Amino acid sequence: MLKGMTRLVSRVHKLDPGRFLHSGTQAPQCLVAHLDNQVPTESPRAISRTLENDPAKHGEQHVGQHYNISIQELKTVFPHGLPPRFVMQVKTFNEACLMVRKPALELLHYLKNTNFAHPAVRYVLYGEKGTGKTLSLCHIIHFCAKQDWLILHIPDAHLWVKNCRDLLQSTYNKQRFDQPLEASVWLKNFKTANERFLSQIKVQDKYVWNKRESTEKGSPLAEVVEQGIMRVRNATDAVGIVLKELKRQSSLGIFRLLVAVDGVNALWGRTTLKREDKSLIAPEELALIYNLRKMVKNDWQGGAIVLTVSQTGSLFKPRKAYLPQELLGKEGFDTLDPFIPILVSNYNPKEFEACIQYYLENSWLQHEKEEGKKELLFLSNRNPGLLERLCAYL
Amino acid sequence: MAAPCVSCGAAASYRLFLAGRVSFAREQGLWKAAAAGLQTGTRCQILRLKHSPAVTTKKNVAALRRESYTVDFIKKQIEEFNIGKRHLANMMGEDPETFTQEDIDRAITYLFPSGLFEKRARPIMKHPEEIFPKQRAIQWGEDGRPFHFLFYTGKQSYYSLMHEAYGKVLHVEERQDQLRAKGLFSEKPKTKDPIGSRWLIKEELEEMLVEKLSDQDYAQFIRLLERLSALPCDAAEEEFVGRFRRTVTVQSKKHLIEPLQYDEQGMAFSTGRGKRKTANAEAVVHGHGSGKIEINGVDYLLYFPVTQDREQLMFPFHFLDRLGKHDVTCTVSGGGRSSQAGAIRLAVARALCSFITEDEVEWMRQEQTEA
Q1: Which of the four, A68, A131, B59, B130, has the lowest number of CB atoms within 10 Å?
Q2: Phi–psi pair at B113, nearest 5 degrees
Q3: Closest by CA position to A350, among listed A109, A47, A21
Q4: So what's the ipTM on this one?
Q5: How far apart are CA B371 and CA B367, in angstroms?
Q6: What is the Cα–Cα distance from B85 to B126, expressed in whole angstroms?
Q7: Which residues are paired to A177 by β-bridges?
Q8: How far is A30 from A279, CA to CA, in rounded Å?
């Protein structure tokens, strides 16, 4: 009744300085094996990684394989925006590897074929919890960064509608509220991601901050961003200005704009923020949300809008909701309509195998056994997030 | 073997709850007569009955511990029990001749409904043999000389039993030697049902012999009996050994394993039901599948976000090494999340029984009880 146990002890590592110690005496053997792809024991290893590190060149044949993002790129492209568990994994493995999956490939295909004369198309990534929407979004962002687009990435819109400590009455519009902390943090990260553009783009209006400070027409956008970072009180307004300018100018064709929002259903949901008299604030009374809503409308050209709806972190939404209709609500759905929905689902068997191989290679899983794999398969039902959590305990 | 046991008693519960007017006064009279008889009786180890019928006062508690009952008293109790049984049958409108113990129990629960949780505290009416603890009769005669030849060992029943068993062993071996001498000896391997019966446990043996035993005594005895049963015995010896074995119900044989059913496409499937606490589950396991499980129309990953519950679902498949091979569709209701998981697990296990042979089912059950 008990099947025989298969122990694959293939430990072929790349000869990185960090992992040189592991290979030891097996190194020459492994190198030879690596070069010769005909050896059957190497084929499981080959499917989990690819050497193609440019997202633009990813195609159907790379589905299920991990590609590497160098640490420098990680710092510039993703100052914020990677899910926290992924950041921990990057730190543990000393490398950042994303898996190429079908939904992301589909989106890449659409993006490569966008017509920038038409209004920006909205793509919505949706799926159940833990299936990989945020990481797919990161894949897209990496692609766009490599293609030299301007990335407007809001890592988690839910963070802007809950747990905000300071709410100031907006200087620009008395009805609205400012969120200085969130806005300044976002501006800092935005600056890191898009340094090179900020000096090129010029503002087209004069903005007066207070009695002493103002930004003249024609000065680079970097000044606005600096102002926002230095004067935290004006950060929200700075964000508003940035958004407005970018929207206006992307149609001119100087740059291409990618608007990426994770958890866009926060824009139309409810908030947990209260005024001093304990009455609830609606999302449109927050200046950040108001401006972001304008951004997500498709009345501008020269870019694309990629959105994710997620239940994790959402407020007052049932756990099992994952469809855009359920999460966005009527108002949000009507605003976003028409959009292209892209379903992100659990791993298929090949991707699951590849993920397990990846963990084995990084010595995250110690032994490879058939029963163990089957148990993992059963317990996680091939859900990427769950698989990662399960493997963390083993 | 065992000394004739005499039981007499002061179990107030028994007397108090006899239905019918088998009169209290008569019992009191009986008591007095018995007490008087005992006092005038021969030297014996029975203490004087200080027990009064209705109330036990504090100073009599010490005496209660070492009470013993005379043969006459027990006989009287048995008579009363039988008469009471007939009265009860009359009251319930049944035939007194065919009134069994189950009928008595039912009648008593009907007439004296009790809300007590401890079942042993509820009203009972049973034969005096079962109520009064067995005690030994006097073991020496008027001249003070004990009856049994092994009295001075301290455990006369135990040693006489050992003596008898060993005598039988010798007898059997002698018979074997005789057969061998004649040349008619044939080696017949003994077949014994390994699952159906078990030896007496120490407590049961003590109860049988009305003597305290030590663990070593008990172990010795069992070893001797096993030695005896390993030899080719005839009917008398088998019967002797059989006195010390108790049957164990083979539970899995009770459980009907339904054969596989086949649906339109020809795929095998089977249903099973399971319960745990207040959760009820019914599962349909399909023969060929990919390990998908659907509960109330929802995927099991969404239904049970907690890993522990999914592990419970995994166990039946994992035990049979059939992790990715079956598809399950099930419905569950009631209980909480943990009991729903347990109920589905049981239902799946029962359904899976149809896919495997009977021996494996029994093996599984034993493995589970051992593990």
Answers
A1: B59
A2: -65, 130
A3: A47
A4: 0.74
A5: 6
A6: 9
A7: A169, A286
A8: 66
Mean confidence (pLDDT) of chain B: 79
Of how many residues is chain A composed? 394
In chain B the beta strands, taken as DSSP E runs, fall at: 5-6, 135-136, 197-199, 245-247, 261-262, 268-276, 279-286, 293-295, 298-299, 327-333
H or E, element range at B36: helix B24-40
- pLDDT at residue number A337: 82
Query: Per the CB < 8 Å rule, is A390 touching B307?
Result: yes
What single-letter DSSP state applies at residue B246?
Answer: E
Which residue from B minimizes the CA distance to A128?
B302
Q: Tell me which residue of A142, A145, A131 sits closest to A102, measured CA to CA.
A: A131
Of A1, A378, A386, the CB nearest to B323: A378
> Å from B287 to nearest chain A CA?
17
Q: pLDDT tens for residues B272-304?
A: 889 999 999 999 988 888 888 999 988 898 889
Which of B314, B320, B360 lies at the smallest CB-CB distance from A375?
B314
Distance separating alpha carbons of residues A72 and B118, to the nearest angstrom: 73
Burial class (CB in 10 A: 0-12, 13-18, 19+), B3: buried
Q: Are the C-beta atoms of residues A287 and A237 closer than 8 Å to each other?
A: yes
Residue found by looking up tokens 């519950």 in the block:
B309
Short-list B48, B18, B46, CA closest to B32: B48
pLDDT over 50 (residue A172): yes
Which of B296, B298, B302 should one mutate to test binding to chain A, selecting the residue with the greatest count of A CBs within 10 A?
B302
Q: Which residues of B touch A5 (CB under 8 A)?
A: none
Has residue A224 got a pLDDT over 60? yes
Answer whether A379 sits within 8 Å of B310, measured CB to CB: yes
Contact partners, residue B157, CB within 8 Å, separation at least 6 = B1, B2, B3, B209, B210, B211
State pLDDT tens for residues A1-46: 444 444 433 343 343 444 434 433 443 443 443 444 444 444 444 4
Gap between the Cα atoms of A217 and A237, Å rounded: 16
Pick from B291, B301, B323: CB nearest A383: B301
Q: Which two tokens stand for residue A140?
A: 């897209």
SS (H, E, C) chain A: CCCCCCCCCCCCCCCCHHHHHHHHHHHHHHHHHHHCCCCHHHHHHHCCECCCCCHHHCCHHHCCCEEEECHHHHHHHCCCCCCHHHHHHHHHHCCEEEECCHHHHHHHHHHHCCCCCCECEEEEEECCCCCCHHHHHHHHHHHHHHCCCEEEEECCHHHHCCCCCCCEECCCCCCCEECHHHHHHHHHHHHHHCHHHHHHCECCCCEECCCCCEECCCCEHHHHHHHHHHCHHHHHHHHHHHHHHHHHHHCCCCCCEEEEEECHHHHHCCCCCECCCCCECCHHHEHHHHHHHHHHCCCCECEEEEEECCCCCCCCCCCCCCCHHHHHHHHHHHHHCCCEEEECCCCCHHHHHHHHHHHHHCCCCCCCCHHHHHHHHHHHCCCHHHHHHHHHHC
Q: Taking all residues of chain A, what is their mean pLDDT, rounded to a whole number?
A: 82
- B residues 258-297 closer than 8 Å to A (CB): 291
Rounded to whole angstroms, how far apart are CA atoms A32 and A38?
11
What is the C-alpha separation between A181 and A58, in angstroms, rounded? 38
Quote the pLDDT of residue A36: 40
Would you say residue B125 has pLDDT above 90? yes
Q: Which DSSP string corresponds to B293-355?
A: EEETTEEHHHH--SHHHHHHHHHHHHHTT-TTT-EEEEEEESS-HHHHHHHHHHHHHHHHHTT
The residue of chain A nearest to residue B303, with distances taken between CA atoms, is A320
What is the Cα–Cα distance from B165 to B175, expressed in whole angstroms? Answer: 15
